[in-house]
């Protein structure tokens, strides 16, 4: 299963994941693409963006959503690399999709 995290700007990727979904589900529902790869899974200090105003909504502070994909998550070894992928949708859109499905 692919692992989904919400990140605040300037935050190191740590802590519990928000969801675990199949890679196919992430492609269909979140628009994830093999071209969205940003780093290897072994990178332990993945920091996204810069610190900024956290916003007023419960998820307003979360700016990025990443998905961790392992070798077991996909069959097409040519298209998908093991690693972290950045979702192009904003965190509020992803949260809504996860709550609906």
Give structural notes.
By secondary structure, this protein is α+β, with helices and mostly antiparallel strands. The chain has one domain (2-100). It is built from two helices and five strands. It has a five-stranded antiparallel beta sheet with strand order 2-1-4-5-3. The longest helix is centred in the C-terminal third of the chain and has 10 residues, at 91-100. 25% of the residues are buried. Residues 50-60 have low confidence and may be disordered.
Question: How many domains is the backbone divided into?
Answer: 1
Strand arrangement across the biggest beta sheet: 2-1-4-5-3
- Beta content: 15-25%
Radius of gyration: 13 Å
- Average pLDDT, rounded to a whole number, is 76
Terminal-residue CA separation: 16 Å
**Biggest sheet descriptor:** 5 strands, antiparallel
How is the secondary structure organized here?
Blueprint: E1 2-8, E2 19-21, H1 23-30, E3 37-39, E4 62-69, E5 83-86, H2 91-100
Antiparallel strand pairs: 1-2, 1-4, 3-5, 4-5
């Amino acid at each position: 299963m692919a692992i989904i995290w919400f990140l605040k700007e300037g935050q190191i990727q740590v802590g519990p994941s928000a969801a675990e979904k199949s890679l196919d589900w992430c492609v269909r529902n979140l628009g994830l693409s093999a071209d969205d790869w940003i780093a290897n899974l072994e990178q332990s200090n993945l920091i996204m963006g810069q610190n900024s105003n956290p916003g007023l909504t419960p998820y307003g502070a979360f700016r990025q959503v990443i998905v961790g994909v392992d070798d077991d998550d996909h069959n097409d070894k040519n298209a998908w690399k093991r690693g972290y992928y950045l979702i192009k949708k904003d965190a509020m859109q992803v949260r809504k999709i996860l709550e609906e499905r």
